[in-house]
Amino acid sequence: MKRIVYTIKNSSWPLMLFDALAVNAAYGLVLLLRYDGLLHYIDVAYVHTYKWLMIPYAVISVTVFWLSRMYKSIWKFAGFDELIRALFGSTAASVIYSVMCTALINIAYTDYSRMPLTFYVFGYFVQLAAICGIRFIWRFVFSRKKSVRNSRSAYIDRILLIGAGEAGQITLRTLRMEKDPREKIVAVIDDDPAKWGKYVEGVKIVGGRDSILSAVEKYKIDKIYVAIPSATDEQKREILGVCSETDCKLKNLPSAYLSLTGKIDTSSFKDVSVEDLLGRDTVRPDLNEIFKFIKGKRILVTGGGGSIGSELCRQIASHEPETLVIFDVYENNAYNIQLELKKKYPQLSLHTLIGSVRDSRRLEQVFKTYKPDIVYHAAAHKHVPLMEDSPCEAIKNNVIGTYKTAYAAMMSGCKRFVLISTDKAVNPSNIMGASKRICEMVIQAFDRKIREGKANEIVRLFTHGETDRENTELPENVQTEFVAVRFGNVLGSNGSVVPIFKKQIEEGGPVTVTHPDIIRYFMTIPEAVSLVLLAGTYAAVGEIYVLDMGSPVKIDTLARNLIKLSGLKPDVDIKIEYTGLRQGEKLYEEKLMAEEGLKKTSNELIHIGCPIPFDVDIFQKQLVKLMTASYENDENIREIVKETVPTYHPAEN
């Protein structure tokens, strides 16, 4: 009873009053029509039965409708669920009414008479039409008022919706119901010919993907919404490729959104990223096998606050490692990923440490304290122009830092050491790429000495006046496995061109490209991290894993696509300027040196580069020379690097 009173107080009483009158009026109308509308022809016994049940039936009907939650719906947004409730409530009330009539007749034979069967049947349908009609008329009036209001708005973005499936229908319905819309879907595209020419939520399906360009022109489209979450990567890429030829702003519904939430509104659509236009499918290794390897392990990630390192930490943290140690020299980055992981995984044994991979004492302390089973070495200076201006810093941090971290891992009994390398290590033309090639050679040198049982011959590098200290004997039966992972430019990473281009577009341009013909291989951060984890799980010792990144992408095309995805026109709204190649930059990157060759793996997109033979003993002497020159800030450091890396040819711009 309290709930009924509460419902009445909350503005449902007019609808309840209408229902009480409507259910009786429905049966009264049917009775009157049965006698051609002539009241005096109606049998008196029928009239007595009808009059006696009016008030009880009104109370019972309202109660049944309330139990069916018909007074808790927002009828201006009424849909299929509300129709089902109304159908159920009306049916239940009509059944009760027929039972009441029968019971009344059985009690009093003289004054009342059994009602005709048509009275119940037609009465039910008239009652259903009355109680549903008033509710859906309310929705219709609301929609019309909203349409009129929208038509008077100063400006509404006209949208082309791609996808007439479940996601598309929900999108249409939701967009219509928004309180203050500034967008209107005016046409729908779907590849199913059976749907062409038909309407979904009042909007016409005008054709398949071949009709996108003509539809944009015909309907004066401002935005394109892609609502096909079940489509394959290739299908989406083809459709987005067509859409990118228009001047419209693109929005895409993430693949898993509908299956995860079951709800869609305009905020569910995300800007189409340039990653969606890559010319290949995403690499998806078997992560279950990867994380079986990670689960229960003690793991150290150097450079754990960077773009690759932080993603490594996220994926590792989600699969129950015994301990995760984040090691980074930049406290802000380390602090941010620490806060994120602590919030998401409160039970995780997480340790965030500040330190440099160039500090032997700090590394020894960390390895001695946490004894990691696996090390992912992501710490490195990666910015090509900056390293060209500070070549000695590239050697100190990348080469010497990698060597010291690898040595500490070996001395602590670490099981697996994974180096993150780059395609710039192939025939390097800049000091950053050359330093990463030397890092790969460090990994191969450690691997060879350990496999030959000569780990004691691995030179220990000391800097800043360090001297040999006690307790430096090798552990028994050294078995640390060393592997490297080589991949191309990572979209969205710190220092990559995409964030730079986006910022330039936001500022109104110009977008700066070094050369109209410069090309690069690209991959996404999740792909890069998956590949690193795959190498850490399956790679045999001394190997370099290489991702087949498909066709290279012209940076000029990348910039123009980003401008188009923002709904602007290249060279019209946003200018593109060519600034010339930077020092140490080359027009193209190579995935593998010709002399390395490739071996296949079970994943056709992932290959293994065969190690290039070199004299490890001579290499170690060259490392000592490199270290000394870098810490003396020798201006001729490039010449010493060339002695160590024969394939290094500094670019002269």
Descriptive keywords:
elongated; alpha/beta; Rossmann fold; 22 strands; seven-stranded mixed β-sheet; nine-stranded mixed β-sheet; single chain; about 650 residues
Explain what the structure shows.
With 653 residues, this protein is α/β, with parallel strands linked by helices. The protein has three domains: 2-148, no CATH class; 157-272, Rossmann fold, CATH 3.40.50.720; 287-490 and 524-550 and 594-644, Rossmann fold, CATH 3.40.50.720. 47% of the residues lie in helices and 14% in strands. It has a nine-stranded mixed β-sheet with strand order 10-9-8-11-12-13-18-22-21, sandwiched between helices. It has a seven-stranded mixed β-sheet with strand order 3-4-2-1-5-6-7, sandwiched between helices. It starts with a helix and ends in a 9-residue tail after the last helix. Residues 4-10, 256-262 and 467-471 have low confidence and may be disordered.
Strand content is 5-15%
Biggest β-sheet strands, sense, barrel = 9 strands, mixed
Compute the CA-based radius of gyration. 36 Å
* Derived structural class: alpha/beta
Mean pLDDT: 77
* Oligomer description: single chain
* Cross-sheet strand order for the largest sheet: 10-9-8-11-12-13-18-22-21
As a percent range, the share of helical residues equals 40-55%
How does CATH name the architecture of the largest domain? 3-Layer(aba) Sandwich
